[in-house]
């Protein structure tokens, strides 16, 4: 019988990453289409708390793999363990959210399993093992339908295309899977993690994102002030990151982060295809740009043709006033 195995991901503080719930929803849909049960994998130093959090989400089995080597994500330790688990249970589909970790891990798992892979999957069609995966190519300019011809298939799932799984269904059975012996002696060892501390929400987890582009000329004060008024994350176009005006981890787009918040405010961003690839799934898009012909207006729900340095303070003052009234 075929099995859909989704690898769960936790944040450095040990909490489940939100994207995992979206990957589970995708896994459920794939399981329904293929008639396969949904299994989850949790790798951690002590995975029991994470397994407990995942129990109500409708998986049949949660496989826990415990090892001190999993205290921090290291691809060289995780990949052999996920591949060994997938082989041992006979999983036909092995997937994870297309986060930085999922994108790093799944190709390595696919190579070990000699599995064909679909990256950034947006949707599934077909049934049984003859499933078609829909995925973006060329920064989202082309949407391709691909079939994977190997018996084991690997995939990363674009979290923003699937709603988060809701609790429901019987509690999953939790099974311990032994970590392969060579995991602890991996030649790549974790040394340190230098977290960038921010009081703002993480870009990919935030429900509001305020982003700035080259139109800011590097002055992000008003972008940050509006973000703080709204409890939002700060994003940026690549032009701004490449100029060194803001840190690289603010970058939204094809080569940055993919976000789909409830509200995305783009100020001084032209709307190049590579930027749109990272934010066009946002529920409501507000664009502020001096140029009425800027392509960002083609995807915006609300467009303001004006100078961002005039609009942002007014917007912030109006939001502040509406909060206190
Ligand atoms: C392989 C590849 C990958 C890429 N990946 C990414 C990616 O991940 N993310 C990304 O963002 N880009 C990416 N790019 C770059 C992308 O093509 C664009 O160059 C970039 O997005 C442009 O950034 P921008 O909109 O800030 O700047 P610009 O295109 O220069 O636009 C600035 C905008 O600000 C407006 N403006 C100027 N002053 C004001 C003002 N005072 N008030 C209001 N509006 C004002 C202008 O009218 C203009 O529309 C990639 C490119 C390549 C080739």
Report the CATH C-level class of the largest domain.
Answer: Alpha Beta
If strands are numbered along the chain, what order do they take across the biggest sheet?
5-9-4-1-2-3-10
| Distinct compounds present | flavin-adenine dinucleotide
Order of SSEs, N→C?
EHEHEHEHEEEEEEEHEHEHEHEH
- As a percent range, the share of strand residues is 15-25%
Write down the domain tally. 2
CATH level-3 fold name of the largest domain: Rossmann fold
Amino-to-carboxy terminus distance:
60 Å
Q: Name the shape in a single word.
A: globular
Q: Please tell me the CATH architecture of the largest domain by its name.
A: 3-Layer(aba) Sandwich
Description:
By secondary structure, this protein is α/β, with parallel strands linked by helices. It folds into two domains: 4-183, HUPs (Rossmann fold, 3-Layer(aba) Sandwich), CATH 3.40.50.620; 208-324, TPP-binding domain (Rossmann fold, 3-Layer(aba) Sandwich), CATH 3.40.50. Helix content is 29%, strand content 25%. The chain contains nine helices and 15 strands. The mean pLDDT is 94.
What is the secondary structure topology, with strand pairs?
Layout: E1 4-7, H1 18-34, E2 38-44, H2 48-54, E3 61-66, H3 75-89, E4 93-97, H4 100-113, E5 116-121, E6 123-127, E7 130-137, E8 142-147, E9 153-157, E10 173-176, E11 208-212, H5 221-230, E12 233-236, H6 238-242, E13 263-267, H7 273-276, E14 284-289, H8 296-299, E15 302-305, H9 308-324
Parallel strand pairs: 1-2, 1-4, 2-3, 3-10, 4-9, 5-9, 11-12, 11-13, 13-14, 14-15
Antiparallel strand pairs: 6-7, 7-8
Flavin-adenine dinucleotide (FAD) binds at residues 213-215, 237-240, 251-256, 268-270, 272, 274-275, 278, 288-291, 294, 307-309.
